[in-house]
């Protein structure tokens, strides 16, 4: 029976037709069309067939890439699956699906990327790059717009299922898992359908959407959708019927529509194809190109295309895939051209250090060593990770970090454990792992990239020398021109030559305009503008006015319409705009992917692209199943990341899509750190602040129906997108973020993408990792969130039976920072000098040699400030690193001052010195940042303690010279020079500067500012007129810090008025003239506000959301939240961190301020209906900040101030009267008697607090005052005998012991007789009340009255005294009870020495710095006050008449 007959029988059986066979029964029985097997046998055969399938016999690298991705057939789609599906493919086999969802082995990276080649007759097909053919001004003609291919199945390993091709001379037999067959369509065939009947979804599946739009529309006839009866035109017209029938079995057609080619050429080799002549009709939906650039023909390069010898590659970015490292960058070809490249680095090992125990855990007499650990742990690792061998050796390493019980130097067992192990590659060794012979593991869960850069000493982007590269194993795994793989890190080294310069970059600016789809409640892409800049230098300054090499805007129909307004194409051509119209969003995204692939950018530049724009863009690529989405990165991927969210706003994995290309966002933390003058960091504000230019967005709602009718309105949207991408690029080049971030990365030794993301802590971490590894130290393990949470739970479960341990609560867990003096509030008319320490904390670290390796910390005690290392000790790693950075910056600054260098070199040197400064100044942060890998609380406390001490010493020195310190903050002091002459003031400052610098070898103070006048309002809040000498002329400029006008919550009008008020206060006029001008000015502005004659934009208020607007509990009373919810309802992207701009409008007085708040764009759109509320702005935005500015001036009248603004002056008159009467309620006029006497009189009978030091010394503590036995420092109480700092726990324990002692005295109940002749002292009480019981105990012979020896009043007074000892406000006013020490007074009197107290300035500083610590001690006393009945009066018992 022939195969044709068998198939005929099969079709008949499926149709239910009974066919009489000519064969005998025995022959029929002996023949079985199918084998009957059980389920288990079927699975075995199925798996064997899949594993032995060759997929493809060599197809010469054309038309196929095996990316390891699973391509499901279109008949079946699971919404829970995260993989992109093609609707035209068949259902996956259930058995294969089961195996797919539960893989048993971790896939190797070459399974994902290695392509197999098949020898197939080459045919013309439409590639991704063909989209770009339409950019030609005169497209050429192509024969057929479409191609068809047979169906395909996918395997559990990804890629198309292809059976072995049996090469014969006459025909090619195709099995169930047949390879795809490409066929040419007959233009007259019925398989071509009318364009009007083509489903839009089917059109969108075509990769060549743009070429399709410009080609003539063929005639169409409806096709039969039956999978059996449908005929497919054969590629070879001579094929017999048997071959045609086999093709019918291999595919089931889904619809009757035309079979459009869905083949995506992910290979670099391109087959040229002629484009069809563009139809010159005036259809508005037809896409046309106004550009003349030709599409790039990307071809893969091999080893023969590169220079001989090792390959030099400049790496820019990285990604970890399947425990292998992929580096992306550029290589130089043999012709000298730079092309994109990728190298896979395999064989990277973890360096694991295992600390042996001193002895066996089960036998303390048996010592342990590294070899004992080797015998124990090696078999476990071999079995757990499926290794045949493992490399290990004993090494001696040092440790200097915060883990207790780890020796400073010891012998370790060093193990090299591969990242890519056969088994359990994702399993990391926990650091707390213990065994019989070892107690801890270091480096068990280090990252792959970290291990690579540390072991190879890679310090950021640089040239790498690659030996023995394999150019075949990684073919078509990326979008790079060159693809390589090396098996071992030994084959890659840092190139140390000086003949290679950093390659230029291709930068692509992008702006995405989005619109809300109200039906699906999703953000969609409305338009995209991209600007390409080629050959931009990495380290040299880029001209800010640089024009892009290519600029184009892609736009789709808007205004809830599917067509463009009539005449849009003619308007584009007439105005010469670089705009490309696309019929729908998916076509736009397809074209965008092709443009990105052609440009092959190294860097994406934009404003808030990662958090908003690219987030929407990527999610739309996912939702619309755009097959070429991976073009945005350099990895050629088919499968989306696991659990990728289908909707915007979910957990973001945007960076995973862009691996291989850098993201430079000027609106993220990195960009904000370079534009500190901005408040909202919106694009118009950044443009004004950085470039000094104005940009006003049109604020056109992209869902406005007029956009589908008005051509000019639509073009305004497109032109605005083009302007925004150019503005973004200009800001980027002006702040030099690329050059600065690159140098910072080279200094830190991390990845460029990390620096661009704004991770300052990450830079500090990597630079310390490199430095400590070079010096032979084991570095701390990086804890993940789970490990930190587990450690916190252990701390929370620790016993806290003793109440004194509560003083280290979470509220007081933060250590003290810099010292801030209490300002001399008011207006200072003399010149005030600001002396500032240069890089105070880094200088302290160098001056006192503070490092992990030099400072001895008390194990387990993180709240005690450790002592300063002894002098002449070996320099620590951290001081040496800082000294290197500082010296390098000093050398660069010398070069910067050279008059011979040009402007380009000067800008380059300035960027380098700025990077060195930022790196050095941020090093201290890693010590005090809780989430830092190198967090060391004792070291941070020591640094800040020395900073407070240095600032106080500077203040005392200035006061000893007769100068007045008016304010000080952390690293600077403000000195009242006592003169108004500039030169005289400078001379005074230079003299003080020289005396301060004499005290230190590395610390240096300098005159930072000269203030002609200064208005001190509060701590960190002041305004001053800064004097500077420019070109021989004295120039004054207003400088404001911390005041209301510096906050974004106040509108621009409020800031302008506050600026005018400050200029009057700090001007040449006296106070009366200044106030008169202020009153007149406010009256004028109040009139203008009420007449609505001020531009609406000046009433705009900016407020940043700290969380998602839907998560606010009291959202009803918050204007910014109400506006955010309103914007979200209009389709805007609003999330945590968004700065909301709004105006409080006038309206119904019954509505709250929050209900009357409206977005700025809405007010601008309807100015006749919405106008600012004058009463709200006059009272809240103008009067309140102005009042705070003038309240310290002599002669100010708040009532007149309110009257000038048209406010209720009577209310402010009442407030003034209340203040004049001694308080808001007049309570200050009535004081209790005990509060009117001094503490010396009130507590003269109270017992002193005796404290005991660890050295055994005892002394009476009397608070912050002068004593010979103790000293109150900025960090607490210090014993004068030994210099030891008493811990908070020690002081609190001794305080509570004294309190309990007095309470026990009270409860002992001792009484005594007031008759001196009796003298009874007993605890017995007579039944006659207070009558003495006498010596006989019978209450006879004595007429005295007994009373308690220790009364409740004395106990209460004792508690009040102990509480007053820690009252820092009383200490500042010097109201504490003085210490009574007759011995000390006698010695001083005999020697003729007079007792010298603490200066007021020192008292103020000590009081502020010890406020939190002393407050914790007061809480110990307060605990007993709450149990003391004397403190409370039962009013019910006094006034109850029942």
From TrEMBL:
Residues 1379-1396 have a biased composition (Basic and acidic residues). Residues 1235-1439 form the Zinc finger DNA-directed DNA polymerase family B alpha domain. Residues 7-73 form the DNA polymerase alpha catalytic subunit N-terminal domain. Residues 59-103, 136-199, 273-302, 788-810, 1379-1400 are annotated as: Disordered. It catalyses: DNA(n) + a 2'-deoxyribonucleoside 5'-triphosphate = DNA(n+1) + diphosphate. GO terms for cellular component: alpha DNA polymerase:primase complex. Residues 440-685 form the DNA-directed DNA polymerase family B exonuclease domain. One of its GO terms (biological process) is double-strand break repair. The keyword Transferase applies. Pfam families: DNA_pol_alpha_N, DNA_pol_B, DNA_pol_B_exo1, zf-DNA_Pol. Its EC number is 2.7.7.7. InterPro entries: DNA-dir_DNA_pol_B, DNA-dir_DNA_pol_B_CS, DNA-dir_DNA_pol_B_exonuc, DNA-dir_DNA_pol_B_multi_dom, DNA/RNA_pol_sf, DNA_pol_a_cat_su_N, DNA_pol_B_thumb, DNA_pol_palm_dom_sf. Residues 68-93 have a biased composition (Acidic residues). Belongs to the DNA polymerase type-B family. This is DNA polymerase.
């Amino acid at each position: 029976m022939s195969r044709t007959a068998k198939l005929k029988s099969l079709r008949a059986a499926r149709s239910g037709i009974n066919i009489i066979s000519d064969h005998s029964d025995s022959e029929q029985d002996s023949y079985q069309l199918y084998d009957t097997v059980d389920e288990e046998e079927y699975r075995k055969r199925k798996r064997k067939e899949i594993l032995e399938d060759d997929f493809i016999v060599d197809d010469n690298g054309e038309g196929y890439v095996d990316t390891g991705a699973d391509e499901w057939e279109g008949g079946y789609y699971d919404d829970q699956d995260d993989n992109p599906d093609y609707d035209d493919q068949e259902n996956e086999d259930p058995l294969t699906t089961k195996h797919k969802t539960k893989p048993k082995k971790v896939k190797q990276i070459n399974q994902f990327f290695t392509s197999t080649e098949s020898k197939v007759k080459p045919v013309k097909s439409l590639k991704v790059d063909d989209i770009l053919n339409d950019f030609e001004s005169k497209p050429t003609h192509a024969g057929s717009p479409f191609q068809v291919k047979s169906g395909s199945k996918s395997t559990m390993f990804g890629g198309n299922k292809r059976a072995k091709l049996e090469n014969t001379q006459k025909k090619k037999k195709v099995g169930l898992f047949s390879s795809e067959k490409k066929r040419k369509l007959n233009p007259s065939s019925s398989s071509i359908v009318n364009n009007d009947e083509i489903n839009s979804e089917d059109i969108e599946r075509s990769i060549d959407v743009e070429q399709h739009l410009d080609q003539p529309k063929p005639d169409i006839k409806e096709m039969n959708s039956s999978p059996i009866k449908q005929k497919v035109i054969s590629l070879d017209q001579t094929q017999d019927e048997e071959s045609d029938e086999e093709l019918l079995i291999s595919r089931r057609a889904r619809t009757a529509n035309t079979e459009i080619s869905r083949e995506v050429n992910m290979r670099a080799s391109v087959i040229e194809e002629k484009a069809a002549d563009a139809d010159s009709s005036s259809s508005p939906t037809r896409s046309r190109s106004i550009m003349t650039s030709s599409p790039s023909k990307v071809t893969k390069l091999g080893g023969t295309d590169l220079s001989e010898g090792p390959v030099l590659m400049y790496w820019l970015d990285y990604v970890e895939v399947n425990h292998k490292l992929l580096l992306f960058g550029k290589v130089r070809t043999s012709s000298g051209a730079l092309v994109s490249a990728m190298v896979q680095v395999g064989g990277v090992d973890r360096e694991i250090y295992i600390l042996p125990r001193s002895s066996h855990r089960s036998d303390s007499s048996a010592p342990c060593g590294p070899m004992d650990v080797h015998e124990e742990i090696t078999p476990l690792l071999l079995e757990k990770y499926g290794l045949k061998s493992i490399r290990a050796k004993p090494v001696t390493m040092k440790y200097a970090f915060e883990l207790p019980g780890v020796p400073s130097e010891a012998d370790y067992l060093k193990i090299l454990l591969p990242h890519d192990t056969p088994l359990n590659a994702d399993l990391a060794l926990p650091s707390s792992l213990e065994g019989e012979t070892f107690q801890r593991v270091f480096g068990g869960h280090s990252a792959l990239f970290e291990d690579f850069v540390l072991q190879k000493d890679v310090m950021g982007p640089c040239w790498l020398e690659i030996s023995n590269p394999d150019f075949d194993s990684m073919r078509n795994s990326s979008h790079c021109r060159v693809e390589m793989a090396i098996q071992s890190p030994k084959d890659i080294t840092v190139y140390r030559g000086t003949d290679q310069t950093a390659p230029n970059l291709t930068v692509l600016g992008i702006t995405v305009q989005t619109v809300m789809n109200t039906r699906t409640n999703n953000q969609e892409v409305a338009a995209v503008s991209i600007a390409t800049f080629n050959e931009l230098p990495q380290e040299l300054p880029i001209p800010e006015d640089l024009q892009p090499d290519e600029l184009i805007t892609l736009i789709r129909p808007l205004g809830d319409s599917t067509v463009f307004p009539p005449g849009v194409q003619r308007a584009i051509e007439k105005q010469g705009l670089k705009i490309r119209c696309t019929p729908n969003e998916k076509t736009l995204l397809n074209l965008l992917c092709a443009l990105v692939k052609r440009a092959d950018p190294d860097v994406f530049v934009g404003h808030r692209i990662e958090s908003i724009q690219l987030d929407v863009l990527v999610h739309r690529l996912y939702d619309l199943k755009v097959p070429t989405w991976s073009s945005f990165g350099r990895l050629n991927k088919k499968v989306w990341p696991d659990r990728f969210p289908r909707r915007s706003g979910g957990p973001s994995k945007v960076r995973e899509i862009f691996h291989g290309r850098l993201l430079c966002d000027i609106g993220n933390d990195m960009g904000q750190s370079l534009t500190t003058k901005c408040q909202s960091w919106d694009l118009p504000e950044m443009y004004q602040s950085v470039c000094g230019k104005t940009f006003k967005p049109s604020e056109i709602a992209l869902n406005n129906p007029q956009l589908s009718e008005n051509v000019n309105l639509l073009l305004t949207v497109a032109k605005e997108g083009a302007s925004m991408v150019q503005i973004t690029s200009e800001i980027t080049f002006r702040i030099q973020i690329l050059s600065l971030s690159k140098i910072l990365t080279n200094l830190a030794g991390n990845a460029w993408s990390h620096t661009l993301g704004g991770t300052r802590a990450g830079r500090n971490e990597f630079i310390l990792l490199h430095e400590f590894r070079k010096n032979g130290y084991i570095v701390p393990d990086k804890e993940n969130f789970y490990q930190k949470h587990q450690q916190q739970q252990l701390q929370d479960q620790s016993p806290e039976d003793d109440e004194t341990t509560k003083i280290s609560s979470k509220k007081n867990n933060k250590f003290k920072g810099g010292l801030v003096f209490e300002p001399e509030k008011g207006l200072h008319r003399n010149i005030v000098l600001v002396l500032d320490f240069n890089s105070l904390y880094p200088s302290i670290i160098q001056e006192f040699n503070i490092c992990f390796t030099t400072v001895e910390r008390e194990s387990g005690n993180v709240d005690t400030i450790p002592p300063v290392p002894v002098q002449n000790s070996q320099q620590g790693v951290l001081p040496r690193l800082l000294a290197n950075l500082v010296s390098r910056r000093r050398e660069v600054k010398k070069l910067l001052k050279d008059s011979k260098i040009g402007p380009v070199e000067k800008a380059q040197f300035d960027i380098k010195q700025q990077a060195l400064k930022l790196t050095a100044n941020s090093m201290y942060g890693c010590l005090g940042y809780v989430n830092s890998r190198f967090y060391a609380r004792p070291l941070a406390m020591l640094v800040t303690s020395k900073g407070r001490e240095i600032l106080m010493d500077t203040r005392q020195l200035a006061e000893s010279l007769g100068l007045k310190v008016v304010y000080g903050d952390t690293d600077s002091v403000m000195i009242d020079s006592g003169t108004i002459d500039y030169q005289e003031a400078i001379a005074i400052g230079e003299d003080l500067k020289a005396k301060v610098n004499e005290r230190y070898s590395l610390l240096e103070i300098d005159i930072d500012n000269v203030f002609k006048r200064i208005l001190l309002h509060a701590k960190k809040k002041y305004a001053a007129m800064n004097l500077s000498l420019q070109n021989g002329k004295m120039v004054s400029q207003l400088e404001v810090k911390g005041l209301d006008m510096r906050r974004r919550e106040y509108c621009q009008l409020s800031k302008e008025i506050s600026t005018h008020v400050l200029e009057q206060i700090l001007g040449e006029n006296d106070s009366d003239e200044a106030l008169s001008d202020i009153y007149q000015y406010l009256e004028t502005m109040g009139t203008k506000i009420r007449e609505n004659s001020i531009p609406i934009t000046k009433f705009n208020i900016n407020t940043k959301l700290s969380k998602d607007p839907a998560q606010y509990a009291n959202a009803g009373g918050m204007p910014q939240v109400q506006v955010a919810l309103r914007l979200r309802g209009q389709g805007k992207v609003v999330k945590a961190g968004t700065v909301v701009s709004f105006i409080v409008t006038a309206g119904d007085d019954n509505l709250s301020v929050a209900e009357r708040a409206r977005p700025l764009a809405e007010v601008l759109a309807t100015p006749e209906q919405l106008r600012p509320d004058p009463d709200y702005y006059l009272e809240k935005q103008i009067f309140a900040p102005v009042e705070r500015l003038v309240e310290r001036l002599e002669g100010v009248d708040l009532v007149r101030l309110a009257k000038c603004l048209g406010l209720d002056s009577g209310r402010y008159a009442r407030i003034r009267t209340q203040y004049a009467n001694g308080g808001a309620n007049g309570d200050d006029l009535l004081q209790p008697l005990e509060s009117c006497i001094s503490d010396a009189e009130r507590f003269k009978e109270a017992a002193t607090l005796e404290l005991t030091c660890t050295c055994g010394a005892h002394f009476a503590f009397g608070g912050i005052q002068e004593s010979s036995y103790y000293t109150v420092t900025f960090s607490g109480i210090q014993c004068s005998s030994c210099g030891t700092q008493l811990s908070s726990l020690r002081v609190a324990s001794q305080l509570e012991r004294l309190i309990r002692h007095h309470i026990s005295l009270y409860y002992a109940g001792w009484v005594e007789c007031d008759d001196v002749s009796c003298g009874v002292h007993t605890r017995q009480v007579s039944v006659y009340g207070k009558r003495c019981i006498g010596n006989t105990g019978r209450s006879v012979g004595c007429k005295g009255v007994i009373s308690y020896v220790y009364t409740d009043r004395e106990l209460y007074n004792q508690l009040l005294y102990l509480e007053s000892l820690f009252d820092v406000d009383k200490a500042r006013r010097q109201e504490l009870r003085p210490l009574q020490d007759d011995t000390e007074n006698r010695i001083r009197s005999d020697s003729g020495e007079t007792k010298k107290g603490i200066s007021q300035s020192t008292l103020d500083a000590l009081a502020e710095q010890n406020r939190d610590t002393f407050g914790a001690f007061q809480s110990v006393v307060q605990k007993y006050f709450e149990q003391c009945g004397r403190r409370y009066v039962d009013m019910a018992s006094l006034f109850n008449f029942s």
